[in-house]
Write a structure and sequence with these properties.
There is one protein chain. By secondary structure, the protein is α/β, with parallel strands linked by helices. The chain has a single domain, classed as 5'-nuclease (Rossmann fold). Helix content is 56%, strand content 9%. It has a 4-stranded parallel β-sheet with strand order 3-2-1-4, with helices on both faces. Helix 1 crosses helix 2, helix 1 runs parallel beside helix 3 and helix 5 crosses helix 6. The radius of gyration is 15 Å and the shape is globular.
Length: 131
């Protein structure tokens, strides 16, 4: 299954055409995609228009849901962050280490366009859609 990061969803809903949004557009309805609670929040909080918010909410709530929080993932995320720091890598956003750790823990492949995940691929074994 594929977890789509907010970086891709935001580009998708803003009409920004990238290789990741093209992949997402062709995959919707054809490939098993899931969404996590943190990603749902990140994407929906950015809508200014109530109509656009409702449209996006309806689309995203139709996608199977994966919880991304909890004690086990919080601890694993902290451990992964500390490991990366010891390797000289600082992940800029805490939410990204949680998303990456959730993918690793749940054996999900990540579709993203955010450089914070690059070190997780190399050093933690995060699986990604390579475009």
């Amino acid at each position: 299954m594929i977890l789509v990061d907010s970086s891709v969803w935001i580009d998708y809903f803003n009409g920004n055409q990238t290789s990741q949004t093209d992949w997402l557009d062709s995959a919707l309805g054809n490939t098993p995609i899931v969404i996590g609670d943190l990603i749902l929040t990140e994407v929906l909080q950015g809508f200014q228009s109530g109509k656009d918010f409702k449209t996006a909410k309806d689309i995203l709530l139709g996608i199977p849901f994966v919880p991304m929080e909890g004690q086990i993932l919080a601890l694993a995320s902290a451990i992964n962050y500390r490991f990366l720091r010891r390797k000289g890598v600082t992940v800029r956003k805490t939410i990204d280490i949680i998303i990456g750790t959730c993918c690793i823990h749940n054996k999900l492949t990540l579709l993203h366009c955010d450089r914070d995940f690059d070190s997780m691929v190399k050093l933690l074994g995060l699986e990604i859609i390579d475009i």
